[in-house]
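Lay summary. Proteins are chains of building blocks that fold into shapes, and those shapes determine what they do. In this project we predict the shape from the chain. Here is one chain we studied, written as its sequence of building blocks.
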Amino acid sequence: MSARCGTALVVVDLQNDFCTGSVAASRYDGDPETLERVSANTALAVDAARGAPRTEVVFVRFLGDPAHQRASWRRRDAVLGKRPKCLEGSWGAAFHRAAPAPGERVFTKRACFDAFLDEGFEDHLRRRGIGHLVFAGLFTDVCVDSTARTAFQKGLHVTVLADCTASLHLPDEQILRFMGLVYGARVTTREEDVWTDFAPGEDAWPARHSGTRA
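And here is the predicted shape, written in a compact code that computers can read:
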């Protein structure tokens, strides 16, 4: 896969505790149907990505077990009265509506927001020559934004599927506009042709050099 044209659909935290059931309902102030619609649209986007040329699907999941939490995370939960979610091996941590197919990679965020904090995530993108990330999943203003921000800073092109994600704390329009202004993110929907790099001809992963900078 060429570094100049590789695309990955990044499915972020499409897990039961974020999408359905009592834990999701207690956290999300909007219409619960929104989460179900996002999940259904993301499943359709996954199907489309699997059939697109030079495109692959990667899944990112969250595990919030206390054993994974650092001091700042524990303090925040204590101050705000937050309970751990997506506990490893639980129903809440299982994927909702869309699950990895054989051979598709899964990356784990252990009590953190940014998929790049799983060291294998960046290594996989580099090895596969992926220069364009298409984001779907939850939540736009938390883990999607955190990962998209790092992706932009590392030179990857960012697309966000507005109908395949929802915001937890901020108005959807506000965070999507922010991502467009600050990261140059292309904000579109799953019905558009998003499976090509919208800035072709640029290498997102220049060759590494040891000892000196290029």
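What the prediction tells us: The helical segments are 16-19, 21-27, 32-50, 71-80, 119-128, 140-153, 172-183.
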